[in-house]
Amino acid sequence: MPDRGLGEADFEELVREVQSRMQGALDQQARLQLLLDAVVSMAADLNLDGVLSRIVGIAGRLVDAKYAALGVLGDSHEQPLRTFITHGIDDEEIVRIGELPKGHGLLGLIIDRPEPLRLHDIAEHPASYGFPPNHPAMHSFLGVPVRIRDRVFGNLYLSEKLDGNDFTADDEEVVVALAAAAGVSIENARLYEEARRREAWLRATAEITALLTDPAIGAGAVQAVVDRAREVAEADVAWIVAGPSSDKLSVRAVSGFTASYDELAELKLEHSISGTVVDSGEPATNPDVASGGLQVSVGSLPGCPVVGSATAVPLGSGDSSGALGLAWAPEHADLHRSLDPELPASFARQAALALQVAQARDDQQRLVMLEDRDRIGRDLHDLVIQRLFAVGLGLQGTGRLADRPEVAERLERAVDDIDATIKDIRRTIFALGTVESSEDIQAEVTRLVDRAAAALKFRPGLRFTGPVRSLVGKDVAPDLLAVLGEALSNAVKHAEASSLEVDLAAADEIVLTVTDDGRGIAPDAIESGLANIRRRAEQRGGTFTVESAPGEGTSLRWAVPRG
Fold first, then answer.
1. Alpha carbon distance 401, 389 (integer Å)
2. Using DSSP, how many helices (H) and how many strands (E) does the chain show?
3. Which of 25, 114, 144, 240 has the maximum number of C-beta atoms within 10 A of its C-beta?
């Protein structure tokens, strides 16, 4: 009789093979459906960080891997991986493991040879470095490169298949397909983020242009530019240097920390990244400030954050040369790498034009003011002085006809007052023409005090504190002299003082103090000249205080930020 057991065994094996293949086909179909769903899911996310995290999680589920990771390639051989995204390891485990891989050993092998790699046991491979303490055990391994066009963006790493087996050729094929789709999704996300960055820079350019056309911006124009540039670049530090030539540069504004005028004035910019940009007229970058190359001078100032990378672009305004600088802390180096230098360069070009327009507007306003001063001076000379002179002559003639001595004496005093008024008006006419062109603020202050001494019949005390000549700029000088003139005039007319002290101090603030021992300001006094002094302080973001009591003298303090 035939051996029916053998035939039955062959048939049963055939059935099992058929069932196995059917199950495999179903598993493959399910896997392909999961892959399709994964591709659609990745394509729907335009946030790069979100896309990368999603890719890692999907890769692990597709091949039933307990652990998955994506290593994004860096720009240097010392640190091949700049970002390492994990799946399957919680935050506590990451803390226990310590520093994440940098791309050496087995991971570096795939970086050097970007092609799929499957291993039965990681530890058996010659390139394996082993695992650090507290690292979970890993044996089976699958690595696949992720490409964007013809360039390798990073690598997918998968380990520890859940069923305990090795990764199969089918697993490799599925992950390779996922990596191809991931490359497209990553490129789309990168393009989207680049478009958003360009939009942000364009919006910042429009905002700063509109801001600088506002006459109220005044001396804060440069600070507004550097603050907006730092904000849109997501930089930790920003600065602007400018000067008439590349060897006479100075830092005009910083953002991200606070520095005093003296600290900024002492910086050496000849061999800095900003000085290089001014000399060449081209953008410059330094991806690793600590390793040398172009240095960031502001990084040496107290309070400045630690600088890891920097970019500077040309900034020209009017007759000045300059540069806009941006720097990032080492932990934010990816923000520096992702920045297209043309974006801040375009912003700087537009900002420079806006600053030039603002400067031209200020010059025009100054010209109008000088024309008004010239007109007022002519009117005072041709009309007021002549009329006062005529009144004085008439009073002198009347005094000779007066029979009573006291009347003649009063008329004579009136004539003297008119002569003194004519002298004051002439000095005012002279001051109208010289205040704007004066180069020596200390000499101008001394001259005003000398004039007051003639009317007070005693010499007021005068003290200068700090580098007054260098710190009181041309934009502050007219207001300072006008305030001092008003304060001295009030003391001459109303104080009846026997002593008067003038103190001018220059540091981060310009502080003018005028103190007398006169009769003080009456509580019901009308504030006219003092209101003008207060308005001049407020327009410059400063303060004006008055301390006075009847019979106890008056102290005026006018303080404004240095220009």
1. 19
2. 16, 15
3. 144
